[in-house]
Amino acid sequence: MPISRNLFRDFGKYNIVVMFITTLASNIVVGALIGYYLDKWTFKNGILLFIFIILGIVSGFYNGFKILLKETERYDKSEKVNEKDGSDDNDNGNG
After folding, report:
1. Cβ neighbours of residue 75 under 8 Å, at least 6 residues apart?
2. pLDDT tens across 9-31, in order?
3. What is the C-alpha to C-alpha distance for residues 54 and 32, in angstroms, rounded to an integer?
4. What is the pLDDT at residue 33?
5. What is the CB neighbour count within 10 angstroms for residue 86?
6. CA dihedral 51, 52, 58, 62 (to 10 degrees)
7. What is the DSSP letter of 1?
8. Residue 67 half-sphere exposure, CB side, CA atoms within 13 Å?
9. Which pLDDT score is estimated for 91?
10. CB atoms within 10 A of CB 8
11. For residue 32, what are the contacts with CB-CB under 8 A and spacing of at least 6?
12. pLDDT at 90
């Protein structure tokens, strides 16, 4: 039983979501770690931890949306190529 191309396209859509969540989570974790250690080393009042968590969230959303835009553009290009290839095959078969 051959696997259809639609199944792979669906996995590609899920992959985009997983990449977005991974990017967001990793940026938040890195920001929290930097904030924790800087706060531990300097003021010890939690302000740097808070600031770096906020920076991690902002950078996570920024990088995540950049990835989403790049992947959707790539997905749209592949859809256009697939539509073009499908229409050429139909034209040649009928004519």
Report:
1. 12, 13, 16
2. 677 778 888 999 999 999 999 99
3. 9
4. 96
5. 10
6. 150
7. -
8. 17
9. 47
10. 9
11. 49, 52, 53, 56
12. 47
Element (H or E) spanning 6, and its range? helix 5-41
**pTM for this model (two decimals):** 0.70
Instruction: Label each residue of 30-95 as H, E or C.
Output: HHHHHHHHHHHHCCCCCHHHHHHHHHHHHHHHHHHHHHHHHHHHHHHHHHHHHHHHHHHHHHHHHC
Tokens describing residue 90 = 């139909």
Lookup result for tokens 């997905």: 75
Q: Model confidence over 28-81: pLDDT tens digits? A: 999 999 999 999 899 888 899 999 999 999 999 999 999 989 988 888 887 788
Contact 27, 63 (CB under 8 A): yes
